[in-house]
Amino acid sequence: MSSWYPVLVFAHILSATIWVGGGIMAFFTARQVEASGDESAKRVFTSIDAWTGSRPFGPAAFAVVLFGALMVWQNPAWSLGQLWVWLSLTLALLSMVLGGAVLGPQSARAAQLAAERGADDPEVQRIQARMRVIENFDLLAVIVIVGLMVFKPGA
């Protein structure tokens, strides 16, 4: 194991904190904004949600996978054949694909429509309802990844 391993662990955990913590906060903030009924708050949140998906969340998710892979490569105790490693990697990649291919474009579309028509527009509401289902699955996948990191089944 190299002397860089603790740095990789730190970078991996910091990236995961941004990704997971940010996702959990976005989940609760979205529910609060929806419940408020405040059109202005909904429009602003829709715009912020589109921005955070491509700025902190996307790069943080990529960094988690990158630093995690480097940690597996550096530590002889870990391998891609272990259940917790390959399942975590699979779920992380699925989350990244969902984020980049579905949630990112849909979030940008919802933000654009909300700015033009208002956050209560039926099309904006339809897009956001679809996104909520995917976001809930995505958040569950990320929480499962955290559990896999902690309990390391198959290690």
Protein architecture, described:
With 155 residues, this protein is mainly α. It has one domain (5-151). Helices cover 86% and strands 0% of the residues. It contains 4 helices and no strands. Helix 1 (5-36) runs antiparallel to helix 2, helix 2 (39-74) packs antiparallel against helix 3 and helix 3 packs antiparallel against helix 4 (122-151). The longest helix is centred in the middle third of the chain and has 36 residues, at 39-74. The model has no long low-confidence stretch (mean pLDDT 95).
Classify the secondary structure makeup into a structural class. Answer: mainly alpha
Instruction: For the record, give the distance between the C-alpha atoms at the N and C termini, rounded to a whole number.
Output: 17 Å
Instruction: Quote the beta fraction.
Output: under 5%
Helix count equals 4
Shape: elongated
Largest sheet: none
- Name the poorly predicted regions: none
Helix and strand succession? HHHH
Question: Measured on Cα atoms, how large is the radius of gyration?
Answer: 18 Å
Number of strands: 0
Helix content: over 70%
Mean pLDDT: 95
Total number of distinct structural domains:
1
